[in-house]
Amino acid sequence: MQIDRAQTLAPAALHEPRNPGLPLDLDWVRRVQANTSAIERRAATLPGRRSVKKDWQAAWLCRAISVIDLTTLSGDDTEGRVRRLCAKARQPVSPEILETLGMTGLTVGAVCVYHDMVPAAVAALRGTDLPVAAVSTGFPAGLSPFHLRIQEIRESVAAGAREIDIVISRRHVLTGNWQALYDEMREMREACGEAHVKAILATGELGTLRNVARASLVCMMGGADFIKTSTGKESVNATLPVTLTMIRAIRDYHDATGIRVGYKPAGGISKAKDALNHLALVKDELGDRWLRPDLLRFGASSLLGDIERQLEHHVTGAYSASWRHALA
């Protein structure tokens, strides 16, 4: 039951060069369109056309684990919960299952927490190369005073966060104020310093796929290292049509500049089959290079438990109870 480790595992460290951004090109932004019916049709046919079974499925599920940002963003978070989450991040699947699969060294991509929990997460992950990601800038609404949002970024970086998930001001997209969105993104990128920045678009609140595509492009011009679908707090989060729209914007940006920008679907991806569908779409549209942790992340909390159940079924032929795979 050996699976191909070389094609499955990837180091958690970030190796892709940073996105330096570009001057805002409003002509390019205004040319961007999105054929909603065609995008939805393409997304709807994917699950029936792309399926993997047996050892191939196990390999793809291990790949999915390697790109998870294991997340806890609750008002009742405690340092103890974060430490337990970090232990799960370091050992996401039972050693017995990994040994049967012929795999070692599998970890998630990062641990994502609120600013107050950054020191606890950094301490719990000491000795590993797993980065801590902090949600900042008045997450999830992003409506706190701008100077406070910038200061929050700086404090999270000072506390040891190597990645910062920022939220954009949705009103700039809804009113077509692309200059304001660009300026905001540039200042947030600067405040992050050496930390990688993921721009959360909150796509469920942007109204149209064209807005999603244009906002994606402007954030990449502003220097975002990743573009991310959602905070996970909106009523609509990561969907396949949104994923298709955003990764095509990433592809267009790469074709024009040679710069690779990462993608992070977040919110609503709780089942193994959801992860497989998103992985297949990314592979189809962007290629294998984007299936590594430095260019792809899943923002998720419960996804890992379902994947672990699927891997146990692959090894033993029986499904285990979900409570046996608690995260924290």
From TrEMBL:
Bilayer-spanning residue ranges: none
Family annotation (SMART domains): DeoC
Pathway the protein acts in: Carbohydrate degradation; 2-deoxy-D-ribose 1-phosphate degradation; D-glyceraldehyde 3-phosphate and acetaldehyde from 2-deoxy-alpha-D-ribose 1-phosphate: step 2/2
Keywords from the UniProt entry: Lyase, Schiff base
Top-level class of the enzyme under EC nomenclature: lyase
Catalysed conversion reaction: 2-deoxy-D-ribose 5-phosphate = D-glyceraldehyde 3-phosphate + acetaldehyde
EC number, UniProt record: 4.1.2.4
Metal-binding is among the record's keywords: no
GO cellular component: cytoplasm
InterPro entries linked: Aldolase_TIM, DeoC, DeoC/FbaB/LacD_aldolase
GO biological processes: carbohydrate catabolic process; deoxyribonucleotide catabolic process
One MF term in the entry's GO annotations: deoxyribose-phosphate aldolase activity
Family: Belongs to the DeoC/FbaB aldolase family. DeoC type 2 subfamily.
Name of the protein described by the UniProt record: Deoxyribose-phosphate aldolase
